[in-house]
Amino acid sequence: MKNNITSKTAGLAVLFAGMLLLSSCDTVSTSNDDPTGAFTVPKGFNFQTTTNVTLNLRASDIAAGSTVIRVYDGHPFMGGNIIRETPLTAGQSRTLNLSVGAHAQENLWVLSTLPSGLMSAHKVELSGSTAQVNVVTKRDESESDSGMLRGTFDDPGNHGFVTTGETAWAGLHGTGYTITNDFELGNTNFYENLCWVFAGGQVNGPSPITGQRAFQTQNPTENSFPNSVTTPWIEFNGTGTITFNWTQSGNPTSRRAILGLYYSDVHGNADTANPLYIQAYSANQSGVVMNATVDIPAHLTGVRRLVWNFLEVGGNNRGSLDDIVISGTLATTGAPACAPTGGSANQTEFVNHYPAANVFGTLAFEDNWPGFGDYDMNDLVLGYNIREITNANDEVIRIEMTHQIRAIGGVLRTGFGYQFPFEASAVASVNGQRLNTSLVSNDANGTEAGQDSAVVILWDNSTENMPTFSNVVPGRFTEYDVIESTITFNNPVPKSEVGNAPYNPFIFVHGIRNGEPFGGRGHEVHLKGMPPTSLADENIFGDASDASDPENGLYYQSKDGLNWAIHIPVPFVYPRSQTAITDAYTNFKAWAENGGTAFPDWYVDVEGNLNEEKVYRRPQN
């Protein structure tokens, strides 16, 4: 009984401590107290964690036709993510203006994909913030070239393929319109980044048919075990051939293997009722290589995938597949989506990702402006992934957005939106808004009424599905609130007129502060240096800790040049409740005091950058 009483007493103490924490956050300060330890940043420094990069692309050396250019934030076949996508025709030039994380600007790559499937990767060599990139060579479709996929092959094994430190070229390549795979890259990750799909096997060296590598199945003991190879999306025209070699190895037991080759429907589902090739391999044929040639039937047209499927019956054996050559045209958007297109030459829409494909950037706000509060940058923490869909002229057709409300560390309510540089009349519609208060008034197209430029409010109450103080206290977690939105234009808008994401993001603050109604639609908080919208209450400028000077274009900064919001181009491990960002991140203060020249990667989640006891991480269980 005594132990139970002690346990309950301890539990009440913890609960009481938590109530004290929440009640202290509920009292919002408007004083000039600076919780950061009073440091000053250089004039003009806006806490920007991205840098602007200009890529001047030219296709003066490619053969007739077009190529699709994709810019990556790392090696395209070694984990890099797509940033930009645009077409180029022979003899054409195009300039891309990118906003990339300061940590990633030295690791940009450009990947060119021709209609034949040839891929050519180029490391971007910056001179200052500019690079010149000639995307392919005239030798593109008939012979190897050191300008193809270049990378260091660091396998120290005695494989006879390529020695450590040498460069290698590889890809989906061939003469004319063919797709090939000889598996000589030696790693499924490389081919998966080329949109091949593997199940139940690996690209290995023990049992090559030719060269040093082949796809090899696992050791299945029943025919339901999946072992397959699936091609990227390919455009077929009902002519040509498919050639490949395959074999089986294993102990001579009573077993056999069956290999089937199938084509998919337009959704990628294999038509197993109509195989292009099916062949049984008996036990006494172990090690015999089957050289297969399949005529592409006249009805096989359009964009499809091919699937080789191994079925094993009895025993313990492995199948191998090698030397694939397919008549067709590559028709995929490329990794990571690997979606079908009408063929590279016919692709009409291109996806431009911010900050990169499948990567979420972070927007973090303090809601106490114009007072300083605790400078923990977690009163509202958002993850964002933005996709600008462009046409062949690099004009924006629509903007697709995914936002995650990740943390709400303040007691006040917030709405969120973007201010754009183009006029509201350019917008046809906005889908996915969540507006349930009376604070926001929209025109028929979904843009906010009464604005001088296009303003889109995505939601007006961040706490609609998440309570206050979500995901700022260690050990506690609330599922993210996800909002999907799309902005569609009446007519394509030049990329230069749209600007770079995340544009001009802002919150507006409303609710109850110190027992009194507070804020409203006009109480906006923006990134430092970004202008307010036409509906912002400019009477707040200069109050409490704010030292904005609208006449000189200075907004949302303190007398020491500090900020109330920050943009991070990666998922950000933000500070715990009531922990200043200067305490949570070791190098933040030095970065800011030096105007961003020191520790430009201060926000990256690596040892030495942050204090684990002062940041919030999602619980693992």
UniProtKB/TrEMBL annotation:
Pfam families in alphabetical order: DUF4842
Residues annotated as domain DUF4842: 394-603
N-terminal signal peptide: 1-29
Annotated region (Disordered), positions in chain: 138-157
Keyword Ligase in record: no
Keywords assigned: Signal
Name of this protein: LruC domain-containing protein
Organism: Cyclonatronum proteinivorum
